[in-house]
Specification:
The chain is of the alpha/beta class. The protein has two domains: 185 residues, Rossmann fold (3-Layer(aba) Sandwich); 164 residues, Glycogen Phosphorylase B (Rossmann fold, 3-Layer(aba) Sandwich), CATH 3.40.50.2000. It contains 15 helices and 13 strands. The protein is globular and about 60 Å long. The model has no long low-confidence stretch (mean pLDDT 91).
């Protein structure tokens, strides 16, 4: 009898990280892959990216609708409730032996809660990280406490999971999944990339992703306004926007980007690039700008610079290729000048990605295949210093 592994995914970026692990589970004769798609995957506003999952040859066993027509705090709370109900129903039907969750979004928090109540062990990927500007910080650590197996990206994150009381024998240092995608994906050449994006690269080019800082009140619009003001002065630069996530205030930022692109012919916006186009774009742009985790976790592997704006990623490990700046046009412009400086560009070749060199998918798969699931649910709080 095969072991049923249920992967629950809610966003385009998260699926991009999980894809190769999912492929490994699918191809393993001792495992049966189940998939629950939820969150932005099912929303036309965010590209209906469940179609990407299906296009990659996966069968989605259950779809859990959670997103409403707006993104106020009340709507996000309702989405959490709907996700909890929907995931509970899906898990009751699928009856997996183990649930695999990645990250820290509200949809994943709902999935973890439903799995815990259903007494299904959880394998949590990318726990122990810190993003002090986000609700995700609390969601992530809560998911850690609901999970039994932990796959972390760096030693510092392993230590933090153990600090939360998790048994070290169930905390596995595997590295970041994003590096696997870079290593395994066949990226596009520049001409094909331009053809698919329907643009021509100018002398300079930047990839921009900016999300709301969810633990700050009413800052998203102001910060995006400052970013766009700085970018408006770069008429010699191809600007490639990927749209914000379905966080509180995200739809307002989408509208601002759409308005900007309508005015500036060197700017282009995409609801969802998908992993291949996104990674291919990183390979050819001069750098990445915004506040996405990808700028810290994946971009350093390309030896490209990242301008990290504001506090959204405060607390994460950072390579030397990261340029932090305040969310105002003057400091963003300063960081842009630094990005293009000869000294900074020459130093990029020595960049080391703190999230590893790849191989996380294979390491996780090996553990999922062989770990004893029979005694995982009842956990003892591990006290530091009482080894």
């Amino acid at each position: 009898m095969t072991r049923k592994i249920c992967v629950i995914t809610g966003t385009r970026a998260e699926y991009g990280l999980l894809r190769w692990l999912m492929q490994g589970i699918k191809e393993d004769p001792g495992l049966t892959l189940q998939i629950i798609a939820t969150g932005m995957h099912l929303s036309p506003k965010f590209g209906s990216t469940y179609k990407v999952i299906e296009g990659d040859g996966f069968h989605i066993d259950h779809k859990v609708e959670v997103l409403g027509t707006s993104d106020t705090t009340g709507d996000i709370t309702n989405s959490i409730a709907e996700g909890l109900i929907g995931c509970a129903e899906a898990l009751e039907e699928l009856k997996p032996d183990l649930v695999v969750l990645l990250g820290d979004r509200f949809e994943i928090f709902s999935a973890a809660t439903a799995s815990l109540v259903a007494r299904i062990p959880i394998a949590h990927i990318h726990g122990g990280e810190s993003t002090e500007g986000l609700l995700d910080e609390a969601f992530r650590h809560s998911i850690t406490k609901m999970s039994q197996l932990h796959f972390v990206a760096a030693k510092e994150y392993k230590n933090r999971v153990i600090q939360l009381g998790e048994d070290p024998k169930h905390v596995y240092l595997v590295g970041g999944l994003g590096v696997d995608s870079i290593r395994k994906m066949q990226l596009l050449g520049k001409v094909e990339l331009e053809s698919q994006l329907k643009l021509k690269f100018k002398t300079r080019s930047l990839l921009i992703t900016f999300h709301p800082v969810t633990l700050e009140n009413e800052t998203a619009q102001k910060q995006m306004h400052e970013l766009l003001a700085a970018l408006s002065m770069l008429d010699d630069t191809t600007l490639i926007f990927t749209m914000p996530n379905a966080d509180t205030g995200g739809r307002l930022l989408i509208k601002m980007v759409e308005d900007f692109v309508a005015i500036y012919p060197n700017a282009h916006a995409y609801t969802s690039l998908g992993q291949r186009l996104y990674l291919s774009a990183i390979a050819y742009v001069d750098g990445v700008i915004g506040n996405s985790s990808s700028g810290l976790a994946e971009v350093p592997s390309f030896k490209k610079g990242t301008i990290n704006i504001g506090d959204r990623q405060l607390g994460r490990l950072k390579a030397t290729s990261i340029l932090d700046c305040e969310p105002n046009r003057n400091d963003i412009s300063r960081a842009l000048n630094m990005l293009y400086s000869t000294e900074f560009q020459e130093g990029l070749e020595s960049t080391v990605n703190p999230y590893g060199i790849g191989g996380a998918s294979e390491k996780i798969l090996e553990i999922l295949r062989n770990v004893n699931l029979s005694d995982l649910l009842k956990k003892k709080f591990y006290v530091l210093g009482h080894e």
